[in-house]
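job 3f2a | input accepted
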Amino acid sequence: EAQQLFDRALRKCAEVLNTVPNDTWALCNEGLTLLCIGEKHLENNDDVGALKTFADGRAAFERLLTLTPSDDEALAGLGALYFYEGEAIRKTDRTQAITKYRQSSEAFDEALANGSEDAETEADKARTLQRLGEIYLETDRRKDALRSLNDALKAYDHSLKIAPRHLRAREARRRLKALLAGLRTSSPRNQGG
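job 3f2a | predicted structure (193 res):
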């Protein structure tokens, strides 16, 4: 049923874009729909389908950004697409996943640079930075990991300052604080090294 709704949304976007190729509403909705479809592919462990769908979604947002370069929603959508591309390739290519997470963080920074106080985008940026820190830990880059994880904590704090009842951000921040506390107690300095 969800796939039928996504297909219908894509058809509507295509109808508009066939008539008005630069319709920003249709481009944005196309990108968001492709993001949702790609997430479903990931949930079903279809990484190849997810990556193709994410690439198509990026193309829609990039077209939109050529028309309106500082569109917050398009930049945030692009950040989400890069994040999920990182998720799709994380197990097979950590180096490329790191690149995707960095691109994601940069896109979220651009979305937030226009002065918008968007708790959701800030929480998504924090999640990206946390994932980047975790992959640095997996590759024994402890200093990079701590920097990224601390930046994630700041982003979660900012998100919760904007929207104190943001449950996803609050729970993610709690888990991140526990991770950081564990890393501090296991640091070489605390182990006499």
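job 3f2a | The two ends are 57 Å apart (CA to CA).
job 3f2a | closed
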